Amino acid sequence: DAGVIQSPRHEVTEMGQEVTLRCKPISGHDYLFWYRQTMMRGLELLIYFNNNVPIDDSGMPEDRFSAKMPNASFSTLKIQPSEPRDSAVYFCASSFGTASGNEQFFGPGTRLTVL
Amino acid sequence: EDKVVQSPLSLVVHEGDTVTLNCSYEVTNFRSLLWYKQEKKAPTFLFMLTSSGIEKKSGRLSSILDKKELFSILNITATQTGDSAVYLCAVRPEGSGGGADGLTFGKGTHLIIQP
Fold first, then answer.
1. Do B42 and A102 touch (CB under 8 A)?
2. Average of pLDDT values for B5-33?
3. In A29, A59, B35, B89, which residue has its Cα 20 to 30 A from B3's Cα atom?
4. Among all residues of chain B, which has the CA nearest to that of A47?
């Protein structure tokens, strides 16, 4: 299995631009999570989906952030317009909800820099 | 609000030493506590703990949970330079459907093993 796939791996953009991060979860996993990691705040859960439906988006910082999961094998996290304080590593993770332990498998992350 | 506090924030020891990393938590309706190791990429899963007093062990790493005092420790014996990483502790609350709800992470302990 290829594991969780994220793209792009690195993105540098200018303030005000739209940014779209992409994630392909592990096949068969029914939960998908988006996290953000910064030095100041550590790892934070932004939003998670179960069977493509958003369950909890209370971690989404503000309306500039939106996430979608149109099907079981693809999710996007969009920031519009982007700001320098959005610079972080964004991780996507997936898990199989009924497996013992519900271990979450993380993707390699997208390092976003907003200038 | 769920809260996870790890200590120390950073630790530098010599190869061969034993280290103990601490994690204390406050969470509504505790389900499990997880430990992750993060090097220069995504976190990798180490242990999941759900019951007090039962030690989980994997090679030189071990971990135990105290649900009464709300903390967990991660021990690493005979440390090696390859153990250098950030060790993250996370807690998971019970979900509405008993499924894989999102995790609340601590800020991590940055462990450096010197040769």
1. no
2. 92
3. A29
4. B102
